[in-house]
Write a structure and sequence with these properties.
Layout lengths: L5 E6 L1 H17 L3 E6 L5 E3 L2 E3 L1 H10 L17 H8 L11 H15 L4 H9 L7 E4 L8 E3 L4 E3 H7 L8 E3 L12 H7 L2 E4 L4 H10 L3 H7 L3 E5 L2 E2 L2 E2 L4 H7 L6 H8 L10 E5 L6 H6 L3 E5 L6 H14 L5
Helix pairs in contact: 1-2, 1-13, 4-5, 7-9
Length: about 325
């Protein structure tokens, strides 16, 4: 390839933002362009401001201001304002909002109330730092994920953060998603990409909402670029979070092979051309390739920047962009 590579990443959550940094570093060294399509299904209104947890985790990670110990929020943040809000009985006392984080939420909310779209608000937020990538929300519509249980329906963040996924859901919903449209730039990025990567994010609540936006699956199937996914499951368990519970709810086995089958092979109406699995799951390789998905076995623990970037190199090679 003579020109600089254009790479698109579909991502959400802590794993997605960590992987995005390694991919950004590799793509930037090659003189390429990285576009990240972010999940907005876990967005919510709280204390009068609009929060975008996955978007902000991605922004902070690429800007190198993320609290890597917690895995989310701003490094060195305080919670003085949150404490004052709780004293007034505003917000959720089990949902921590950092002061610096609140600054981003207030800025976003101010722009939205002035008439800016979600895409425009995100463009303004990311312009503060040289993040080396372009962040796009999956849609400008509000499609907050709702968790339906036998007792009641709650926002995903309440189920995930307050109850730590201890209540078994009946299903996950994104009300209104049937009439949503991809955010400006999303379909063009997929059509023009030289490689498309699905991050090692929670398949059910981070990646599936992106794929459920009308037009996105079709764009992936029509793309000239290869679509390669990175497994978020290692040795039959999620690397982080409660993806195993989410997968169980939608009837998917918590394994590298199970998630590969969930996404499906592009030649059979799914989205994947390639799938990266951990060395611990090498025994699944034959079964995954029988689905019609080329499978790469590699170390997938993102223990440091070097290992994460090595994963990105392998993902790009699997997508037809060798270093």
């Amino acid at each position: 390839m003579n020109r600089s590579p254009r790479v698109v990443l579909l991502a959400g959550g802590v794993g997605g933002s960590t992987f995005a940094v390694g991919l950004r570093d590799e793509v930037r060294e090659r003189g390429g362009e990285l576009t990240v399509v972010c999940n907005t299904g876990d967005d919510l209104w709280l204390a009068g401001v609009r929060l975008q947890p996955d978007v902000d985790s991605m922004l902070y990670a690429l800007a190198d201001v993320k609290d890597t110990t917690k895995g989310w929020g701003r490094r060195g943040d305080s919670t003085r304002v949150a404490g004052e809000l709780h004293a007034w009985g505003v917000g959720w006392d089990w949902f921590e909002l950092g002061d610096l984080d609140l600054g981003a939420h207030l800025a976003r909310t101010s722009w939205l109330r002035e008439g800016a779209s979600v895409s425009e608000a995100l463009r303004r937020l990311q312009s503060r730092w040289d993040i080396g990538a372009t962040l796009l929300p999956m849609t400008d519509a509000e499609l907050d994920t709702r968790v339906v249980t036998a007792e009641r329906t709650m926002h995903f963040q309440e189920w995930w953060t307050r109850f730590r996924a201890s209540i078994l859901p009946e299903r996950f919903d994104n009300p209104g998603i049937e009439t949503a449209v991809p955010a400006p730039g999303v379909l063009d990025a997929l059509a023009q990409a030289d490689a498309i990567v699905v991050a090692p994010s929670n398949p059910v609540v981070s990646i599936d909402p992106i794929l459920a936006v009308p037009g996105v699956r079709g764009a992936l199937r029509a793309a000239s670029a290869r679509v390669v996914g990175v497994s978020p499951i290692i040795g039959g368990a999620p690397v982080r979070g409660m993806a195993d519970i989410c997968l169980r709810v939608v009837g998917v086995t918590c394994s590298a092979a199970g998630v590969a089958a969930h996404y499906g092979a592009r030649e059979s109406g799914g989205i994947l051309d390639g799938w990266m699995i951990a060395e611990e799951d090498a025994a699944d390789r034959a079964g995954i390739e029988a689905l019609g998905v080329t499978t790469t076995v590699a170390p997938l623990w993102m223990t440091d920047a070097a290992h994460t970037r090595a994963m990105a190199v392998r993902a790009l090679a699997a997508a037809g962009l060798p270093g």
